[in-house]
Amino acid sequence: MTDDTATIRSTLEDLTGLPVPVHGWDIREGLDSTDDPAVWIWAVIDEDDFDGETSLQVTDAVQAAVRLAVPHLWPYVSVRGRHEQSPVS
Fold it and tell me: What is the pLDDT of residues 13-42, one digit of tens each?
Protein backbone atom coordinates (compact mmCIF):
# COMPACT_ATOMS: atom_id res chain seq x y z
CA MET A 1 0.00 0.00 0.00
CA THR A 2 1.39 3.39 -0.93
CA ASP A 3 1.39 6.37 1.42
CA ASP A 4 -1.35 7.97 -0.70
CA THR A 5 -3.55 4.88 -0.45
CA ALA A 6 -3.02 4.77 3.31
CA THR A 7 -3.96 8.46 3.55
CA ILE A 8 -7.06 7.91 1.44
CA ARG A 9 -8.13 4.86 3.45
CA SER A 10 -7.69 6.76 6.72
CA THR A 11 -9.62 9.74 5.33
CA LEU A 12 -12.49 7.52 4.18
CA GLU A 13 -12.65 5.57 7.44
CA ASP A 14 -12.95 8.89 9.31
CA LEU A 15 -15.59 10.28 6.93
CA THR A 16 -18.83 11.14 8.72
CA GLY A 17 -22.22 12.29 7.56
CA LEU A 18 -22.70 9.73 4.80
CA PRO A 19 -26.36 8.83 4.18
CA VAL A 20 -25.73 5.08 4.60
CA PRO A 21 -23.12 2.88 6.27
CA VAL A 22 -20.16 1.94 4.09
CA HIS A 23 -19.04 -1.63 4.76
CA GLY A 24 -15.76 -1.43 2.90
CA TRP A 25 -13.55 0.57 0.57
CA ASP A 26 -11.74 -0.76 -2.48
CA ILE A 27 -8.97 1.70 -3.39
CA ARG A 28 -6.64 1.41 -6.39
CA GLU A 29 -4.15 3.94 -7.70
CA GLY A 30 -2.98 4.27 -11.28
CA LEU A 31 -2.95 6.47 -14.34
CA ASP A 32 -6.19 7.50 -15.98
CA SER A 33 -6.84 7.62 -19.73
CA THR A 34 -4.87 10.87 -20.04
CA ASP A 35 -1.89 9.41 -18.10
CA ASP A 36 -2.62 11.61 -15.10
CA PRO A 37 -2.32 10.15 -11.58
CA ALA A 38 -5.68 8.98 -10.31
CA VAL A 39 -7.35 6.82 -7.72
CA TRP A 40 -10.37 4.57 -8.18
CA ILE A 41 -12.54 4.13 -5.12
CA TRP A 42 -15.48 1.80 -4.68
CA ALA A 43 -17.71 2.31 -1.64
CA VAL A 44 -19.44 -0.92 -0.63
CA ILE A 45 -22.95 -0.56 0.78
CA ASP A 46 -25.97 -2.80 1.33
CA GLU A 47 -28.06 -3.30 -1.78
CA ASP A 48 -31.17 -2.30 0.19
CA ASP A 49 -29.59 1.14 0.77
CA PHE A 50 -28.76 1.70 -2.88
CA ASP A 51 -30.55 4.30 -4.97
CA GLY A 52 -29.46 7.06 -7.32
CA GLU A 53 -29.62 9.86 -4.74
CA THR A 54 -27.67 7.87 -2.15
CA SER A 55 -25.03 6.98 -4.73
CA LEU A 56 -24.66 10.65 -5.70
CA GLN A 57 -24.36 11.79 -2.07
CA VAL A 58 -21.71 9.18 -1.26
CA THR A 59 -19.80 9.94 -4.46
CA ASP A 60 -19.80 13.70 -3.84
CA ALA A 61 -18.68 13.34 -0.21
CA VAL A 62 -15.89 10.90 -1.08
CA GLN A 63 -14.60 13.01 -3.98
CA ALA A 64 -14.49 16.14 -1.82
CA ALA A 65 -12.68 14.38 1.04
CA VAL A 66 -10.12 12.72 -1.23
CA ARG A 67 -9.41 15.93 -3.17
CA LEU A 68 -8.53 17.62 0.13
CA ALA A 69 -6.43 14.71 1.39
CA VAL A 70 -4.45 13.98 -1.80
CA PRO A 71 -4.99 16.83 -4.27
CA HIS A 72 -2.52 15.40 -6.82
CA LEU A 73 -4.72 12.33 -7.46
CA TRP A 74 -8.03 12.62 -9.30
CA PRO A 75 -10.67 10.46 -7.54
CA TYR A 76 -13.02 8.29 -9.59
CA VAL A 77 -15.71 7.08 -7.20
CA SER A 78 -18.30 4.34 -7.61
CA VAL A 79 -20.78 2.75 -5.25
CA ARG A 80 -21.52 -0.95 -5.34
CA GLY A 81 -23.55 -3.43 -3.36
CA ARG A 82 -21.98 -5.85 -0.90
CA HIS A 83 -22.79 -8.84 -3.09
CA GLU A 84 -21.04 -7.25 -6.07
CA GLN A 85 -17.82 -6.87 -4.11
CA SER A 86 -14.99 -9.00 -5.41
CA PRO A 87 -12.08 -9.88 -3.15
CA VAL A 88 -9.30 -7.31 -3.23
CA SER A 89 -5.99 -8.81 -4.24
Answer: 999 999 999 999 999 999 999 999 999 999
Q: Please, which residues have CB within 8 angstroms of residue 26's CB and are 6 or more apart in sequence? A: 40, 41, 42, 44, 85, 88
Percent of the chain exceeding pLDDT 70 equals 93
Find the CATH number of the domain harbouring 35. 3.30.70.1350
Helix axes 52-69, 3-13, angle to 10 degrees: 130
- Show the CA angle centred on residue 46, arms to residues 77 and 29, nearest 5°: 25
Q: How many domains is the chain partitioned into structurally? A: 1
